[in-house]
Each structure stands twice: as C-alpha cells, then as structure tokens.
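Friendly challenge for the regulars: who can give me the structure tokens for this chain first? No prize, just bragging rights.
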Amino acid sequence: MSNSFFSWFQLTLAGLGVIGLFLLFFGIIALISLKKNKLNNNIKINIKKINEIFAENKNKILHEVLTSSELKIIEKKEKEENKLKKKADKKSPPAERDKNIFVLDFNGDIAASAVTALREQITALLQVARPVDEILIRLESPGGMVHSYGLAASQLARIREKKIPLTICVDKVAASGGYMMACLADKIISAPFAIIGSIGVVASLPNLNKLLKKNDIDYLEMTAGEYKRTLTPLGEITEKGKAKFQEQLEDTHELFKNHIKKYRDNLDLSSVATGEYWYGLKALELKLVDEIKTSDDYLLEASQNYDIYHIFTPKKESFKDKLTGTAAALVSLIMEKCTTKNEQKYPLLM
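First reply, four minutes later:
Bragging rights claimed.
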C-alpha cells in the first residue's frame, strides 16, 4: 500500500513537472513574442533598383553562353544605344525623362497583416513621389476581415489623393478584400489565370446550443441593447437574430459595392457583385481588370525607359524567430477563437 502511494505521488510530481515545463516554455515564448512585436512596431524599409538586378542577371547569362568576341559586339552595340538614349532624353520633356516607378508588395492573409509594413512604405513614398512618377503594387490576396482590408484599401486611397498614378498587378489572386484594394488602382493588370472578383460577404460560426440542451447544460448570456448579440456559438438561434445578422451582412455588401463603384464606375455591379470570381481573361471582358500581363513583363518593359525601385521591408528570421512566430500564430488563433465566443464574429470579404 505504501509503495503504491509513493508510486502515485511520484507520477503526480512528474506530471506536474511536465505541465510546469510546458507553462514555463510557452511563458518564455509569449514574452519573446511580446518583445518581438514591440520591435516590429518600428518598421524599416529597404530599396533596390530593379534595373540593376535585371542587368546583372542578363550579364551573368551572357558571360556564360557567349564568347569574348560576341560579348564585345554586344557591349559596343549597348554603348551606342545608350548614347542615342541620352541624346533623346535631352530633347524629351523633363516630366517624361525623370519618371520613376516604385514597386511595393502586398501578400494578404485573413487579417491583412501586411498592412503594417504597407502603411509605413506608403508614408515614406508620399514624401518623395511626384505626380509624374508611378507606384506599382504587386498584390496577392484572397480576402479576409472587412475592417482589416478596409484599412489596407484606405492606404491606397492616400496615393490616389496625392494624384500619383497607381498600378496594381495581380499574378495569382485579388479576390474579395483583395479586389477591394485593387479597385483603387488607375490600372489593374492581371495574369491570364489570376483569380479576380468574389465581391461578396460571408460570415459563419458553429452553434452548440442543441448539444448543451441535450446534456442539460444551461448557458447564460446577459446583454444590454436589443442587438448586442444576434447569433453566438452557444446561444439559441432565433429567427429575429438570423434576420438581423443577415441584414448586417447585406449592409456590409452594400458598402463594398459602393466602394467599388466609386473607383470603377464602368462596372456593371449587378453582374459582378454576386460573390463569384473569374480568371483574368474573363475578368478583362467584365472590365474588372484593364490589361492581361504578368508583373514580370510589365516591369521588364518599363525598365527600358524608366528607373524602377523596389521598396520592401526586410525579413530576418532566425530559428528562434520562426519558433516564436509559430507559437504566436497559435496563440493568436486561440485568442481569436475565444474572442469569437464573446464578440460577434467579424464578417469576411471572402
């Protein structure tokens, strides 16, 4: 009996030790994550000249595949072309000669978290870019939370307000919240099979109320305000609650449509604001985009005449950062799910 008691006691201590280690481990990760988030508040930007990257890659290939005599012929030809270009530049208007293209990237997730870097990059650019310049954004996003993508779209509106030409290139997808951003462009360029559109709103949540009743579990939720809660994961579903929730979704959809109409008034909204999506070629027919081309071709062609600068936020991830990022993402997901139980689930532009 005594041996059994001590065995149980040792197992209990061992179990508590393991739990303690887990708590300590995740506590340290949480602290590192908080510190990391504070550091990330100071967003830094880098800049690279894309023309130089194109030229460097081209020369590397030429030096591998051509003989020295063939290289000399090409170099001589390029020198002559550069002389002619300089002469043409002197004769052309300064506005055309001095144009710069600034390239930004936006890779959107459900929370449009890339807006943190985007807003800093745009703030920096608006201090130097002129109406003669062009800002090009390579945008990829399937959509997400309404308020998050609303903020991202507002950042692009800042460019429009300064009368600086805005071009958006979509190589893969600009759907829902992604298209909410894209429609602010003066020109939308899409790859042939990029996914475009999905102008609609969706919200979903599981409901466990019947399961609670089946197990004789009471769920109490007290509110002040008739529509403080409509549908919740644990509360009873009512027709009144469903009707109000649907009304809120319709209101959000109407805001979405009005936003698109403001910036692309040539669209037939009754045809395209159905929640459907289309590939680039069909999107061009529907006037959702203005041109079919990849961002690579657009930039390569533009580099023949203009200086192109890539504005980006560098990412340096050590093993610790990757581990912390994974843990922080899991914590964020858990917190989001917990919040969903206590607050109305956000409508999604997806």
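The two ends are 62 Å apart (CA to CA). Residues 11-16, 337-344 have pLDDT under 50 and may be disordered. Your move, everyone else.
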